[in-house]
């Protein structure tokens, strides 16, 4: 199932990565305002997605939203814009939740690469700690647990289609957030 999700979303993943300001961290040119915007974009996407996943899989942990919230609080960024997007994404079945969860965990893995470059960004030197882009190994645990749980789950053909379609839709939702926030 993991390979099916990966193959079905590969191009969407590349497209969204290309339109994201995270690359400015990689090349160390990001400004504080751009960083605040990047955190806010991620907050909106993760908060809405994680809340919807939790409605279908109550044991799901919304830890990414919590870390983003801490960063935004420290930077005094208003997060009320999230309300404008709350009704633009839904997860209606557990299978759909697995598809959305794939995107959430996979994109947070990308945050590990970004975190290795964040300390080289002069505009962010005044920040004592980064919670979302922390680079802590514990952030990879979610991906590993997701993969383990996914392997033990039996999906019907209908559920596979639901999960794959929702993964695609989740990437598109993230892309929309990155364009509109």
Automatic annotation (TrEMBL):
The coiled-coil segments of this chain are: none
An example GO biological process term is: heme oxidation
Gene Ontology molecular function, alphabetical: heme oxygenase (decyclizing) activity
Report what the protein is called. Heme oxygenase
Q: Taxonomic lineage of this organism?
A: Bacteria, Pseudomonadati, Bacteroidota, Flavobacteriia, Flavobacteriales
InterPro entries found in the cross-reference section: Haem_Oase-like, Haem_Oase-like_multi-hlx
Q: Which domain of life is it from?
A: Bacteria
């Amino acid at each position: 199932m993991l390979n099916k999700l990966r193959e079905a979303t590969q191009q969407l993943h590349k497209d969204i990565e290309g339109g994201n300001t995270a690359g400015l961290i990689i090349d160390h040119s990001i400004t504080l305002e751009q960083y605040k915007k990047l955190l806010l974009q991620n907050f909106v996407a993760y908060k809405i997605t994680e809340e919807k996943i939790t409605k279908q899989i109550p044991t799901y942990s919304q830890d990414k939203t919590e870390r983003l919230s801490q960063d935004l609080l420290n930077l005094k960024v208003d997060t009320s814009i999230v309300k404008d997007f709350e009704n633009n994404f839904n997860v209606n079945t557990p299978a759909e939740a697995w598809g959305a969860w794939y995107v959430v965990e996979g994109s947070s893995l990308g945050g590990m690469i970004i975190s290795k470059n964040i300390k080289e960004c002069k505009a962010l030197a005044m920040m004592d700690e980064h919670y979302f882009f922390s680079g802590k190994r514990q952030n990879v645990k979610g991906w590993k647990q997701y993969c383990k749980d996914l392997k033990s789950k039996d999906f019907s053909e209908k559920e596979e289609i639901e999960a794959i379609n929702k993964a695609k839709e989740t990437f598109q939702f993230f892309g929309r957030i990155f364009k509109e926030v």
